[in-house]
Amino acid sequence: MRKINKSIKSLVMSIALVCCGARMFASNLENLHPFELNPVNDSILMGTGVALSGSALICDKLLNIKSSDFDASELSKGDIPVFEQIFMRPYSKTLHIVGTGTMALSLVSPVMFAAVPKSEWLSIGMMYGETLLIANGIKEWLKIAVNRPRPYMYYEGYPQNKVDDGDWNCSFPSGHSTFAFTGAAFVSYLFNLYYPDSSWRYAVTGAAFGVAALTAGLRMASGNHFFTDVLTGAVIGTICGFAIPYMHTEAFYKKFQKSRNTNMSVTPMGFNFQYRF
């Protein structure tokens, strides 16, 4: 228990250092606005996220469409691919708690952008909300669609409460890894756009993904997930963490703007079409 308390205290101190340290980058940002909200774009993204997460929640908690019947005789470690067995471990409550802590650290890491002008807070908050909802929805639907027992079910001493609530066959993909890599990618992308000339860019990116990778490792070490579970979660989180903020940049919006090099008009003789090189 002392080790757990020390780990939690270390995580809290890390969060505080991130929040305080971000202030050193806050200068010369008054006129920098790399992201822009758009009613149509944000309605689509937020609607997609709510639809995915909401429908998954309804199907899982209310409709119970996923079978969770447990039969120990059906589980055999020999049925698991050899490369997956390398990372299989029995359940560890201590590592489970620590892994949840590192995931929480990744999730709250965008708080460092409290250092940017307040005019940017709404954009950052909206983007992060959309990112989390979409990543969570994808992850939850995959969990519903795939019945995969967690690694600890192949060992004695598995947590009975996980069997009772049906969580025992929700191994794929790793939700902790999804959220950890979502936070890491989101922070890395925003930091590089807000502070493009900072020498800390690589350090921040490395630290963000380092914590996410640690979370994935702890999820395997605690017996909760296979390697492919955390790998899939990492891919989902990374793609969402980069893609959603990108969809709020000028570079993205330009792809849908009408080209200024073309001009079409109607004349008494018909249509007139011009293209400027």
Question: How would you characterize this protein structure?
Answer:
This protein is mainly alpha-helical. 58% of the residues lie in helices and 4% in strands. It contains ten helices and two strands; from the N terminus they run H-H-H-H-H-H-H-H-H-H-E-E. The chain has helices spanning 2-21, 39-62, 82-85, 93-108, 121-145, 160-164, 175-194, 201-221, 227-246, 250-254; strands at 262-267, 270-275. It has a two-stranded antiparallel sheet. A hairpin with a 2-residue loop joins strand 1 (262-267) and strand 2. Helix 1 (2-21) packs parallel to helix 4 (93-108), helix 2 runs parallel beside helix 5 and helix 7 runs parallel beside helix 9. The termini are far apart. The model is unreliable at 17-21 and 264-268 (pLDDT under 50).
